[in-house]
Amino acid sequence: MFRVQTGEWGTVGADELSATLWRERRQLELLLYRLETQLLHVRAGNWHWLKFAAADVEKVLENLRFDTLARNIESSAVAIEWRLSANATLPMIASVAPPGVWPELLQEHHRELVQVLKQVETTAAANVEALQMGLQGAGNPPLGSVQPGDAAPAAPGAVACADTVDDVMLLAENANIERALAVTRDCSLPLLREFLGLE
């Protein structure tokens, strides 16, 4: 990361903004990784791991919200310092940056953030589609169905107990899919899209 002397006019806040943008980029990359991991589990039918995958995505989203808040504060300060409105987008801020390293660095942040955000959106959409298919297909093949080579059918009481266990497992599977679906739909990040000038 480029560092600029803090005594240079007009760049004190830009240094902090750049550091905040780096953190936000790292969180976005981590979100992409978590979504890709979740998608692998969904496509493999590992429904029992979804509770952990969804929790990982949720944690990154929580961290991203804090980073977004910090970035909003820093970008507003820089925008005002550089005579823009407080809600200026990153391309607007980069366009009025003082000569030197700042225009190039802020444009690089913009390019990287847009690229990772698009990957996040694509992967989140693939997750939603796969999760919806999993939700529709959950329970179609009975969990306790008899397979070739299985032992003779059990007594009626044992079958009823097995059916209850299967029902509980199916409910847990559906709950894991529903939670992962809800968390994944929360990955839209409209404030970041707006800041990047994509809205």
Short description:
The protein has 199 residues and is mainly α.
What does this structure look like?
By secondary structure, the chain is mainly alpha-helical. It has a single domain, classed as Methane Monooxygenase Hydroxylase, Chain G, domain 1 (Up-down Bundle). Helices cover about 70% and strands about 0% of the residues. The protein contains 6 helices and no strands. Helix 1 packs antiparallel against helix 2, helix 1 runs parallel beside helix 4 and helix 2 packs parallel to helix 5. The longest helix has about 35 residues. The chain is elongated. It starts with 11 loop residues before the first helix and ends with a helix. The relative contact order is 0.16. The N terminus is likely disordered.
Give start-end ranges of low-pLDDT stretches: 1-9, 140-153
Tally of distinct domains: 1
CATH architecture: Up-down Bundle
Shape: elongated
Helical amount: over 70%
Order of helices and strands: HHHHHH
Distance between the termini: 28 Å
What gyration radius follows from the Cα positions, in whole Å?
24 Å
Strand portion, in percent? under 5%
Largest sheet: none
Whole-number mean pLDDT: 85
State the CATH topology. Answer: Methane Monooxygenase Hydroxylase, Chain G, domain 1
- Tell me the number of strands: 0
> How many helical stretches?
6
Text of the CATH class: Mainly Alpha
Structural class computed from helices and strand pairing:
mainly alpha
